C-alpha cells in the first residue's frame, strides 16, 4: 500500500481501500497517514461492530425526517418571508428576519403572567425591534409557536401568521390589511 491511497481505520487496524477484508496492515505512526497525530488512529464512521454504536445514520440525508426541528422551522420561516414578500412587495427585503427558541426576556414574561394573568401579557410568538443601524429586525420564537400548533402540518401556516402579525406591528397596519387572506 502506498502512502497516498485512502485509508479506512477500524479498531486499530488500518485497511487500504483496495485491500480485501482479510488482508490487514499495521498502522504507521510516522505521519504518513493524514489526519492522525502522534500515533493515534481514528475509527471509521461506517462500522462500529463491537462498540454497540450506530453503523450509520438512521435516515438518509434526503428524507424529511433526517432534518432537525430547527432546520425545518427555519425552512418554514423562509417560506413565510417569501410569501409575505409576494404580498407586500420589496419593502420586506429591507427587514431582517430571525428565529430564536424562546423569547430573550422569558423570566420577565413568566413573572408577568403569574402576577397579571395570561390574558394581559402580550403574545410571545414574535418580537419586532430596530437595530443600531435602523434596520427592522423581526424575531420569531420557535417553541411558543410549536406549543400552540395542534398538528405539525399546521406549523407553516402558524409561522406565516406570526410573520404577518409582526410585519403589521412594524408597519402600523392591521394584519388583515397586510394580507387579506390572514386567518389567525
Which key features would you list for this structure?
two-stranded antiparallel ribbon, alpha+beta, 184 residues, disordered N terminus, 32% helix, 5 helices
Summarize the structure.
This protein is of the alpha+beta class and 184 residues long. Helices cover 32% and strands 13% of the residues.
Distance between the termini: 66 Å
Helix content: 25-40%
Strand content: 5-15%
**Main sheet: strands, sense, barrel:** 3 strands, mixed
Instruction: Specify the overall morphology.
Output: globular
Q: How many strands?
A: 5
The number of helical elements comes to 5
Taken in chain order, the helices and strands follow as: EEHEHEEHHH
> How do the strands line up in the largest sheet?
3-5-4
Look at the structure and give the mean pLDDT.
75
Residue runs with pLDDT of under 50 for 5 or more positions: 1-36
Over the alpha carbons, how many angstroms does the gyration radius reach?
A: 26 Å
Tell me which oligomeric state these chains represent. single chain
Class from helix and strand fractions = alpha+beta
Task: Describe the 3D structure.
Helix 1 packs across helix 4. The N and C termini lie far apart (66 Å). Mean pLDDT is 75; it is low at 1-36. The chain has a 3-stranded mixed β-sheet with strand order 3-5-4. The protein has a two-stranded antiparallel sheet with strand order 1-2. By secondary structure, it is α+β, with helices and mostly antiparallel strands. Helices cover 32% and strands 13% of the residues. It has 5 helices and 5 strands. It has helices spanning 69-88, 106-116, 142-148, 155-171, 175-178, and strands at 7-10, 13-16, 96-100, 126-130, 136-141.
Amino acid at each position: 500500500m502506498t502512502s497516498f491511497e485512502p485509508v479506512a481505520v477500524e479498531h486499530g487496524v488500518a485497511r487500504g481501500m483496495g485491500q480485501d477484508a482479510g488482508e490487514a496492515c499495521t498502522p504507521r505512526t510516522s505521519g504518513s497517514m493524514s489526519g492522525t497525530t502522534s500515533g493515534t488512529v481514528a475509527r471509521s464512521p461506517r462500522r462500529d461492530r463491537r462498540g454497540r454504536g450506530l453503523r450509520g445514520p438512521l435516515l438518509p440525508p434526503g428524507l424529511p425526517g433526517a432534518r432537525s426541528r430547527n432546520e425545518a422551522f427555519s425552512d418554514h420561516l423562509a417560506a413565510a418571508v417569501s410569501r409575505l414578500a409576494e404580498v407586500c412587495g420589496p419593502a420586506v427585503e429591507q427587514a431582517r428576519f430571525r428565529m430564536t427558541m424562546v423569547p430573550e426576556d422569558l423570566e420577565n414574561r413568566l413573572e408577568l403572567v403569574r402576577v397579571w394573568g395570561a390574558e394581559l401579557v402580550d403574545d410571545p410568538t414574535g418580537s419586532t425591534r430596530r437595530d443600531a443601524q435602523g434596520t427592522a429586525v423581526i424575531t420569531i420564537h420557535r417553541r411558543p409557536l410549536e406549543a400552540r400548533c395542534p398538528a405539525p402540518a399546521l406549523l407553516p401556516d402558524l409561522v406565516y401568521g406570526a410573520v404577518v402579525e409582526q410585519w403589521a406591528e412594524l408597519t402600523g397596519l392591521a394584519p388583515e390589511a397586510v394580507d387579506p387572506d390572514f386567518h389567525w
